[in-house]
Amino acid sequence: MDKAVSTDKLTKRFGDFVATNEITFDVAQGEIFGFLGANGAGKTTAIRMLCGLLKPTSGSATIAGFDVYRQTEQIKQVIGYMSQRFSLYEDLTVRENIRFYGGIYGLPKTELRRKADEIIQTLELGTVADKLVASLPLGWKQRLAFSVALVHDPRIVFLDEPTGGVDPITRRQFWDMIYEAANRGTTIFVTTHYMDEAEYCNRVSIMVDGRIKALDTPAAMKQAFGVDSMDGVFQILARGTSTK
Amino acid sequence: MYRIQFIIEKEFRQIFRNKVLLRMMLAAPMMQLILLSLAANFEVKDLNIAVVDQDHTTYAQRLTGKFRFIGNFRFVGYLPAYKQAYRELQAGTVDLVMVVPGHFERDLTRDNKAQVQLMVNAIDGSKAGIALGYAQTILRDFNEAIRTEAMGVIPAGRVQIDVENQYWYNPQLDYKTFMVPGILFELLLIVGGMISALNIVREKEIGTQEQLNVTPIRKHEFILGKLTPFVVIGLVQFTMGLILGKLAFNIPVVGSPLLIYGFALLFLILCVGIGLLISTISETQQQAMFAVFFMMVLFILLSGLFSSTENMPQWAQYLNIINPLRYIIEAGRNVMLKGSTLQDMQIQFLSLSGMVIGVLALASFRYRKTV
Ligand SMILES: Nc1ncnc2c1ncn2[C@@H]1O[C@H](COP(=O)(O)OP(=O)(O)OP(=O)(O)O)[C@@H](O)[C@H]1O
Ligand SMILES: [Mg+2]
């Protein structure tokens, strides 16, 4: 019950194809959980089931104690989600995007203004606050999208490849933001392709072809596979080859 | 309900920021209203008429004379016989030939009854119909004139001229007056049905729909918030159309403006409902566009806006029972031009209301936050 996420043999089939195959894992509250896997491993499918966007085929899962079959609306109250596709409105300004999503989450108007000021200040977006989001560089957009996903102070936030296509410096800044959120008690569930980012997580799982092949802390995992980087672990598991 | 305002606000911001869309929704319909009303004008001018006079009497000449002084006709001269008349019609040099048979005057005075024959080139069916209609009106006038004259001379019975080619048409009808209300409502289909469907599907395409679906927003909040702006813009467009109709074509609103707006609102809600329904069955804007066009073309062709429905086959008539455009055009024309009341328009009102309920129920059933 203290688990932020808990799944048991959670499965999604698309016709004959099993995208997510009986995955079972727990994520503790306040944890930074890395959800790794190659392209097409089934990460997005799993996340979408956990967020109540996709009905599972079988198995069970709870998010903050809420059931993914029956309590999707309660789940939506307590989670934030940053999808793999960019999800802000390009034809709205920074401020308008914050106001819109905050409003949708039911924040009162005074709170909306406060939130907007706070986000704009933290992200140092003061000069572009009233510019259309379309005009921002990708890194800024991604950081803004993350802040917007946190606008209602969710207990758990799902980040689906938040740093895809972003330069290393911005990725660093992004991870600083993730740590700040985690320090405030938010559970982080994050997928990534960058193995250096996997090192920043408390625990990681590695998915291959719809199944979870390994789940542990980065240190324990490296030790178990006898390699010195997460990339080495990933090579062995996901690509079936060793870098050594 | 608190959340709805944020959706409405966002939609308006996006719409006003998209100048092309705005023009499509407000300026383009006004141009269409003017162009379509002018183009759909069935008034026919400069009809060439020739006469085959086989009677050579005063009455025959007076009848012929009638055609010389009517604006729509141009009297091109006498032809000696059928054969030439036929050739001229075929060549297209005349549009209408009136044959006054021998004994026309004699039959008219003796039997109170005579016949003339009208020949038209029916290649252009509607022009032929109109030409006949005009001619028939002239004959009727002539008929009236003689009857009054003849009262003293011929004590009993009625004087009557039969036209062999019976064809009813109403040449007095002003087509612009007739077209404008129809086009006004037809245009609402575009804002209400097409733009709204494309708008929702666009969010699916760019991915913001998924982001919305992961928020606690309720189905009805999304639907209301998303569709209200299009209803409002539709009403603005409708108002502009009414004003333009008045200024450009002097189209009156004889009936209650409240009733007209009531019908416009009802129809707009139906249109956005259809737009929402289409958006739930389309994954891309292309698909939505195709679905909207399919529906619009069907509605418009069957509605009788540009063609008459009476000659359509039975199945088309049945299909028309579920054609909302037909009902709204009937209601619009009758209320605007004849001043019909809600009582007169009961059938239209109830049919449209039924469709609104059906479409909205189906659309909200189909709209899912999960896939
Ligand atoms: N709606 C769907 N219908 C059919 N197949 C699907 C559907 N959604 C995903 N898939 C398939 O399921 C598999 C897993 O997809 P998923 O998007 O979960 O992978 P992923 O791990 O997120 O990959 P990536 O790193 O590329 O984002 C893929 O082969 C994909 O083609
Ligand atoms: Mg993915």
Automatic annotation (TrEMBL), chain A:
It holds the Pfam family ABC_tran. Keywords: ATP-binding, Nucleotide-binding. Residues 5-234 form the ABC transporter domain. InterPro entries: AAA+_ATPase, ABC_transporter-like_ATP-bd, P-loop_NTPase. GO terms for molecular function: ATP binding; ATP hydrolysis activity. PANTHER family: ABC TRANSPORTER G FAMILY MEMBER 20 ISOFORM X1, ATP-BINDING CASSETTE, SUB-FAMILY H, MEMBER 1. This is ABC transporter domain-containing protein. It comes from Arsenicibacter rosenii.
Automatic annotation (TrEMBL), chain B:
The chain crosses the membrane at residues 20-40, 178-201, 222-244, 259-281, 288-306, 345-365. InterPro entries: ABC-2_transporter_component, ABC2_TM, ABC2_TM_bact-type. GO terms for cellular component: plasma membrane. It is found in: Cell membrane. Its main location: membrane. Residues 135-370 form the ABC transmembrane type-2 domain. Keywords: Cell membrane, Membrane, Transmembrane, Transmembrane helix, Transport. The keyword Transmembrane helix applies. One of its GO terms (molecular function) is ABC-type transporter activity. It is a multi-pass membrane protein. It comes from the Bacteria. Belongs to the ABC-2 integral membrane protein family. This is Permease. It comes from Arsenicibacter rosenii.
